[in-house]
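Students often ask what a 'structure token' actually looks like in practice. Rather than answer in the abstract, let us consider Aminotransferase, a protein of 399 residues. Its sequence is given first.
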Amino acid sequence: MAKLSDRITSITGGGSDGWEVFYRARRMVAAGETVTELTIGEHDVLTDETILDAMHRSAKGGHTGYAMVPGVAALRQAVADRLTKRTGVPTKPDNILITPGGQSALFSAHMAVCNPGDTALYVDPYYATYPGTIRAASAIPHAIETRSRDAFLPDPELVSETARAHKARSLLINSPNNPTGTVYPRTTLEGIAKACIDNDMWLISDEVYDTQIWQGDHLSPRALPSMVERTLMIGSFSKSHAMTGSRIGWIAAPEEVITKLIDLATSTTYGVPGYIQDAALFALQQGEPLEEKIAAPFRRRRDLMREILAEQSAVKAIPSNGAMYTMLDVRATGLSGLDFAQALLTKHKIAVMPGESFGNSAAGHVRVALTVADDKLSDSVRTLCQFAHDLSKETSCAS
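Now compare that with the structural description of the same chain:
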């Protein structure tokens, strides 16, 4: 067999892909066991029926052929209007490329701004695909580590120092953040913007959770001075409209960047099916009430978790101000996040994601996805806390 390319064989970096606990939980479910899955960010409700009806009407109406590669004109306009309204940054359809989901947008963004061998920075903890996405674009991923006690907020001075040391071409950030639930405040984003300007870096801003803000405000860095011309903003219908399987998102960027990204899309995805774009357009036309309906369960469950966690001291919660997750510090148990997650799955059949799946900074933590019914989440979190309490007592006695 001929040798595969270095690009394709190096995507995982030769290590774990971080999904061991998730895969194990799914094998248990397939074997007939009952497992409470608090692993991936998948809504526990299906795509709204009215959106599916719109998709069906479009498909039955004949929009099943090739769609325009940049995106259907009406959808590009609607996304541009949404961003203008929500971020305050004047945005035109020519600033928008419709993509097959946010993941495709992340890959395309790095392809647009990084040459092979360039260093691309990203913040640790990170969404599990980030390093692989950067490697797939033939760039070199380099993590900016953060600290649990700082709510995992990046230090802009460290960003700037690292950028200078590695002559970095780009920085990828994510706020509201997966996996931590952290929402970057203005001061952090202003510091990041300065680091990008001082070091002539592109900023890739993953904002797919922008409708899930529980405390504080969402600020898109495109809105900061001198940043609109160096920012590629990633959006998606997956989280805001529970359309994960529809695979539809967007990139907002300077017009000259979008022009070149259209060339890339023509050579790779050749666009997004028209009937899916029509469904996404319908979803946007429903306005904020639908987005708030989709977000409401996660806001409620975040508050529920805060109440439960306030009653105990075995685990420490990182403040979750956005997104559909809560990160828990379980280091008092003496276990790594991975060992804790495996033990919890073995003993109680509750699956959570180890912090180590998201980088070095989250070691000794676990991420809980707020993606099951309130009563099941409540029972599972109480069980998790009691399990951590018992382990902490054992650790204390052993010492």
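One point worth highlighting: DSSP finds 14 helices and twelve strands in the chain. Ask yourself how you might have guessed this from the sequence alone, and why that guess would often be unreliable.
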